Amino acid sequence: MRCPVIVIPAFSRGDSLKRLLDSISVAYFPDEKIKIIISLDGGYSDDVYQVATDFADNFTIADVEVIAREENLGLRKHILLCGDFSILHGSCIVLEDDLIVSKTFYLFACQANTKYSDNDNIAGISLYAQRYNEYANLPFEPNTKRKTDVYFMQVACSWGQVWSKEQWIAFKKWYEDNLDIDLLKYPCIPKTVALWPNSSWKKYYSSYLILNNKYYVYPYVSFSSNCADNGGTHNINSLNTVQVPLNYDEEYLSSFLFSSLDDKSILYDGFMEPILSENKYIFGINSKDIQIDLYGTKPVNLLLRSKYSISSKNNIDPIATFPLRFKTIENNLYHTLNNSDKGFFSLNYSSRFIIENYHTKRIRNFKLLEYFNYSHMINKSFIYGLLFKYLNKFIK
């Protein structure tokens, strides 16, 4: 197996770092000794240094190295330097300090790395199972497929990821050649990504995936979770939005099922929209001629690159409509409505979809939020809690 070095960038969150290291300390590892590097950015806090050195002194089953940097690199440059350890060691796992990992995270990383590291169309492996669409600010549920533990998506992961030497070198070359790239010029890149702050390395990695038609491997069951503690570069307050259930199944140790990246795989594009199998026909239209926009986040000028689209956007005289009822979201496309029924999704010529205003976007997103919620949103407790949350800011 190709077993990667574990690299942990840290700066000022001592309690977060200790929680991550505690979860690593009870994980399962191969018989051979592993390497762990804790990289402290310049200006690190005293408690972070103490936590890191204590772990290095006491975690004897691994070779633990603490790098205390003098220069403050900032998040983006720091993560990029951490990724460079894949070149020296053949591959690396990067775990930011506000994560936790499951007991089987390293075994999954080794086996997935062995399976996919030589595939030119794979640019990284996620330990994190996505449950949140960052571009729509809504839940995300991937479609399932029997006999595999993974699917593929053109979205980079920053909440526990594996890079092989080959994958990292290819990205770094693209990155260094495109430092001045104007991401807003590309409608295929979500505007949310293009507008992420300059401190974000992930905006470049996600753009690299999209522009080069490469994928991340994602597990259905998560091997890492993001606590999103305050004090980080992008978090003012703690969040639960990106906490996901961890795999705690101790029998799930050695027989992960990995599918090949091909037309029969479960695929998602850079907007977290499903990529339909080639030569699949919907109302006699080949899927390769259809742009999928179920969350409604793709700009109209991107839809216009295809003759047809299926979207939740407003449109004129649709060819067919589909409900917002079945799970997962793409499975609604198997249930065509009668012409007299008003559906949520429409198949239409791309030119017939309308650029929406603020009001129509909010109404669509509210309906999607209702759909993804597994309880009744419109009840007294929900309304009371919502009002109390915001009124409480003024009471204080």
Topology:
Elements: E1 5-10, H1 14-25, E2 34-40, H2 46-58, E3 62-68, H3 75-83, H4 85-89, E4 91-94, E5 99-101, H5 105-116, E6 122-126, E7 132-133, E8 138-139, E9 150-153, E10 161-164, H6 165-177, H7 191-194, H8 202-211, E11 215-219, E12 224-226, E13 267-268, E14 281-282, E15 285-286, E16 290-293, H9 300-303, E17 308-311, E18 320-322, E19 345-349, H10 358-372, H11 380-395
Parallel strand pairs: 1-2, 1-4, 2-3, 6-11, 9-13, 16-17
Antiparallel strand pairs: 4-10, 5-12, 6-10, 7-8, 9-11, 14-15, 17-19, 18-19
Helix pairs in contact: 1-2
Please supply descriptive tags for the structure shown above:
alpha/beta, 4-stranded mixed sheet, 396 residues, 19% strand, 11 helices
What can you tell me about this protein's structure?
- The protein has helices at residues 14-25, 46-58, 75-83, 85-89, 105-116, 165-177, 191-194, 202-211, 300-303, 358-372, 380-395; strands at residues 5-10, 34-40, 62-68, 91-94, 99-101, 122-126, 132-133, 138-139, 150-153, 161-164, 215-219, 224-226, 267-268, 281-282, 285-286, 290-293, 308-311, 320-322, 345-349.
- The chain starts with a strand and ends with a helix.
- The longest helix is centred in the C-terminal third of the chain and has 16 residues, at 380-395.
- By secondary structure, the protein is α/β, with parallel strands linked by helices.
- Helix 1 packs parallel to helix 2.
- Strands 3-2-1-4-10-6-11-9-13 form a 9-stranded mixed beta sheet, with helices on both faces. A 4-stranded mixed beta sheet has the order 16-17-19-18, with no helix packed on it. Strands 5-12 form a two-stranded antiparallel ribbon.
